[in-house]
Amino acid sequence: MNLKIKYFGLLAEISGCPEEEMEFSKSSVSELMETLFEKYPLLKDKDFQVAQNHEITSQETRITENEIALLPPFSGG
Amino acid sequence: MSRYSRHIVLSEVGQLGQSLLSNAKVLVVGAGGLGCPVLQYLAAAGIGTLGVIDFDVVELSNLQRQILFGTSTIGMNKALAAKNRLEDLNPTIQINAYPEKLTAKNVLVLFDNYDIIVDGSDNFTTRYLVNDASIITHKSVVFGAIYKFEGQVSVFNYQNGPSYRCLFPEPPREGSVANCSEVGVLGVLTGIIGSMQANEVIKMILGFDHVLSGKLLCYSAKTAEITTIKVEKSVKEFEKVYALKDHFTNQYPESSNEYEVREISVEDALNKENVQFIDIRERDEFPQIEVPPNLQIPLGTLVQNLNRLHAEKEYIIFCQSGIRSKVATHLLQELDIPNCYSLQDGALGIMEHLKRTS
Questions:
Q1: Which ipTM value was assigned to this complex?
Q2: pTM over 0.90
């Protein structure tokens, strides 16, 4: 399926874009992460949550919707 | 009440709403990029009791975004500088300034005195401290955080809603996230995110329906795009915090940023002649100390009372246990009252000594 992946904060600096479209044939969030880590190895060192269709997921969540967001925590104030 | 007429005329606020605001007690953690606009709008709106805690001082590089401060306040403690400015903005409200670091030691007592906590801190240690203490003291937290051109806003621990740990269970690994001083931040962004936080505080006090609980609002100043992510409550994350309750004071590292000031033991202090004791605790703190005779000047009002002190006189500053008095002693030295000592063990130490020697 065709996914739209949005990168927030410093994750967008690693991917080089705030969002991109990607063809994805596997099923779970953890498999999607493997794919993204391969594409952007620096992502592996970062802590973030993954949302699917505006809801936080776990590693086991199946990808059924096409909008994915990668959200890091911000500390600045 | 012409000060609040533009609020009162709104049917959603009215006289009742305005009295809810004036009865509310809100504590703002951090008087930085986010804390400043929060404080300005809440003071202007007539929040009856407004607390601000920050140990840091105003620096030139803050003025690009922390527009509560001016060039004349550079070098002043932020909480005290904020109080001075806010008292001019609205002299009808009570503003409590705490020029100290929020720690596991003072956080529970402090939170207990307020209804709503606003997190405008700039580091994860404080953010998790605020989260955990708010769960233990059953307070809602209006959260805001920023990175360069982006901000996050949410309300946590509100009406049985999720907490910060439900979104991010543990602090990120060291070096995984950079801070403002390393990466920079758009000044206007802090105004936008801080204003959103102030708005949520007012909505909660007025009892509006759509408080930003259970959702994380992500804003980009570059695209003006807002993305809202649903956050579910995780009971496990609350239980994790409750389990830590008894060890709370041991959970976080002590401040490494303590002030270097001259300290004096209770015994040496009481033997000293021609010295004036100053109690810098709040007026309602126990035990009340009558021996030795002392001036009562709460820490938050120290700057205003400076004219009561003399540069050539010796002072012994005490608080409850000898921590806040170090902050006060440091502050007085900065303000050209050089002959000050911070009393080790504070009021509790005096009581102990008097009991032993009577």
A1: 0.96
A2: no
